[in-house]
Amino acid sequence: MSPIGWEVGALFTLFALALWFLPTYLKMGTTTIPQLMEARFGRGTKLMFSFIIVVMYSILNLPVILYSGAVVFENIFDISGIFGISKFTAVAILCVVIGIIGGCYAIFGGLKAVAVSDTINGIGLIIGGLMILFLALALLGHETTGGGLVEGSSTLYKPNPKSSTHGLRGMLLNRLCRGRSSSRVCSSTTCTGGARISPLYSAHSPQRA
């Protein structure tokens, strides 16, 4: 539930970025955050920021993306069964192949190719996300009351006698907290989000003399 909450909250941040921050970036002639850092704070800040981002993505983001993509391909196409290898070997090979193809696409296609692919992915994510929402509610209604979408939606708001909080908010907190206090979860989520978007706001701050 926490990734869903993060992505939904990011929607409003992206609106602010597009309406207020992006025009400033375009006027400065910058297309990447490292370029913006160099224009505002100098080359040293740009190199430090780029190094941190590369390390963070290499350790945190890329392994998860490559592994999840490889697992999906393995489950759909049964690569291990086709070539007679173990699932671990198939997933490892798929991670390497996906990484090479993605790297070549980004390096040789440039920023425009990445922007085009992100636009297509965004449209697909919106359509798929809405489909998952309605299909999940319909399945919930079918499994609980034998009904459909409406019954599934109403099930989310039914009070849980085992919980101190009720309704949709209680359900979300129960799934997110898992025994921890809601204040700890909210504070950790807020700190993570602030650290993630802080470069945008620091870059937009008044230029130093």
Which features would summarize this protein structure in a list?
single chain, 209 residues, mainly alpha, 8 helices, 84% helix, flat, disordered C terminus
Explain the overall architecture:
The chain is mainly α. The chain contains eight helices and no strands. The protein has helices spanning 2-28, 33-41, 43-77, 79-83, 87-144, 149-156, 167-177, 182-204. Helix 2 runs antiparallel to helix 3. It starts with a helix and ends in a 5-residue tail after the last helix. Mean pLDDT is 75; it is low at 165-169 and 200-209.
Shape: flat
Our Rg estimate from Cα atoms comes to: 22 Å
Structural class by sheet pairing and helices: mainly alpha
Order of helices and strands: HHHHHHHH
* Largest sheet report: none
Report, as a whole number of angstroms, the end-to-end distance.
44 Å
Count helical runs: 8
- What's the number of extended β-strand segments? 0
Unreliably modeled segments: 165-169, 200-209
Mean pLDDT: 75
Fraction of residues in H or I helices:
over 70%
Which range does the strand content fall in?
Answer: under 5%
List the helices and strands and how they pair.
Layout (H helix, E strand, L loop, with lengths): L1 H27 L4 H9 L1 H35 L1 H5 L3 H58 L4 H8 L10 H11 L4 H23 L5
In short:
With 209 residues, the protein is mostly helical. Helix content is 84%, strand content 0%.
